[in-house]
Amino acid sequence: VAAVATPALVFTGFMGAGKSRALRHAHAAGLDAVDADLLLADELGEPIASFFAARGEAEFRRRESELVLRLLDEGHEAIALGGGAVLSEAVRDALRPHTVVWLKVGVEELWRRARGSHRPLASDEHEFRRLYAEREPLYSGLADAVMLSADAVTEALPSLDRLAASGATRLIWAESESGSYPVWIGEGILPIARAAGPGNPFCVTDTHVGDLYLTELGEMPAITVPAGEPSKTMAQAEKVLAGLSEAGATRSDHVVALGGGVVGDLAGFCAATYQRGLAIVHAPTSLLAQVDSAYGGKTGVDLAGAKNYVGAYHQPTAVVADIGTLGTLPEEELASGFAEVVKTALLAGGGAWERAQRIGTLDPRPLLPLVIECALTKLEIVRSDERDGSRRAVLNLGHTVGHAIESAGGFTRHRHGEAVGLGLLAALRLSEADSLRSDVAGLLDAHGLPTSLDPAIETDAVMAAISRDKKHTSQRGLGFVLLSRPGEPEFGVRIDPDRVRQAVEELR
Ligand SMILES: NC(=O)c1ccc[n+]([C@@H]2O[C@H](COP(=O)([O-])OP(=O)(O)OC[C@H]3O[C@@H](n4cnc5c(N)ncnc54)[C@H](O)[C@@H]3O)[C@@H](O)[C@H]2O)c1
């Protein structure tokens, strides 16, 4: 790959994703920005739609590719490409040294935007969806960064600017109502975390992870809690808060949560409350945390017998997921993280579910695309509903029974992911998705996850914990997430307690 003096920011994505809009933001921020479609229409001497109709797609693509290759060569700082420009292999090759930003917008929303427009390829919905499915892998494969909306470009520019030098394989710009932040995913990128927040860094970690990775993270005060779910308590939170105070953390500094989901939830809760809130950077080191818990800003601790009962929403300032750290993760913990992968793939459906079924051994390195895909699925859901008001509730698939199993076992019998796996089986039974339930059971089993409950856990205790689920409201009772087919979750479904009991009993 030929080196370029300065990599350009190149916006790609399907028609209607907002590439020109993104470019206008880049231009407003002072970058030399060019829109390939506008320049092409100029060169063709007529609107793209009429050229396309008169001369055909092949001739159009030839002219488009010629122009894009020239623009990439000219040293512009930002370029917006037409949606089909990446179909050309020469263009794809020429994009390599540049920072390619994929504007990823769901096909429903894209069709809503494109319908009735004069775009040549937007007259037939079926064809539109087929084209989207065909091109998505191209955008995804080329992307260095993924953005979920064009309007976040101004805020994301400093991170996009640093991307080429960061060593990260992928940057995802996470958005939610209360704040947006960069998610860096790659190998060997842990040290980014120390400077990814304001002021001085203060680490919170656990006994296993601290020993392994504190040195790599770099010199900073560290507060270490015992490893495992029993540390997600108010008592440990108080120790962490006292530790931050003794170490001299101020509101203008940041916490680095170095560890799995337990450290992330505990440190997140402390960061949300210490001096009424200081910044947190998540550096997730377990598969579970890298595919799920580090994103979306939910933090909290357990009360005796009541999972995640105390907590706060507190979005991170950044997430740094270094998949190199998965190399030291014990096999059972990799498996536990896989349960959340299965959940995410069931929610996403389509290709994601097919890929999850094909995953063989959980070797850390090939997990990179999986981590990226799961992070994106979760972040797209959180973007549309940060606080569980509606769509975010689907992320709870398998968790109502799963959390109850954890609580009923005193947080020591089943790991979180193991309990979620069992909860998925119960949820699929309640969804009457019998054949999907056996597929999921087979998949869990193949990855060393239990498909039956620890005999020491009583059904009554699980039922009691379900009735204490924090999603239970006095007005509306407790709603379950059901899934009759991959990709088609339903939330807020009331279910007769006897049927729930049967689904739990069946796990014996
Ligand atoms: N906030 C959220 O949105 C959210 C979502 C899902 C789960 N969670 C929470 O996440 C928690 C489960 O997370 P978890 O499974 O990561 O548990 P965990 O944090 O206890 O980590 C599992 C074990 O692996 C060890 N470990 C972690 N990284 C390691 C590494 N790189 N090398 C060696 N050992 C390593 C830990 O020390 C621990 O012993 C639960 O409390 C669950 O409620 C939160």
Written overview of the protein:
There is one protein chain. With about 500 residues, this protein is α/β, with parallel strands linked by helices. It is about 45% helix and about 15% strand. It contains 20 helices and 16 strands. The protein has helices at about 20-30, 35-45, 50-55, 55-75, 90-95, 105-115, 125-140, 155-165, 205-215, 235-245, 260-275, 285-295, 330-350, 350-360, 370-385, 400-410, 415-430, 435-445, 460-465, 495-505, and strands at about 10, 35, 80, 100-105, 145, 170-175, 180-185, 200-205, 220-225, 255-260, 280-285, 300-305, 305-315, 320, 480-485, 490-495. The strands form three sheets. Strands 2-3-1-4-5-6-7-14-11-10-8-9 form a twelve-stranded mixed β-sheet, with helices on both faces. Strand 5, helix 8 (about 155-165) and strand 6 form a beta-alpha-beta unit. Helix 4 packs parallel to helix 5 (about 90-95). The longest helix is centred in the first third of the chain and has 18 residues, at about 125-140. The protein is globular and about 75 Å long. The chain starts with 8 loop residues before the first strand and ends with a helix. The mean pLDDT is about 95.
Which structural traits does this protein have?
16% strand, twelve-stranded mixed β-sheet, 20 helices, globular, 508 residues, binds nicotinamide-adenine-dinucleotide, alpha/beta
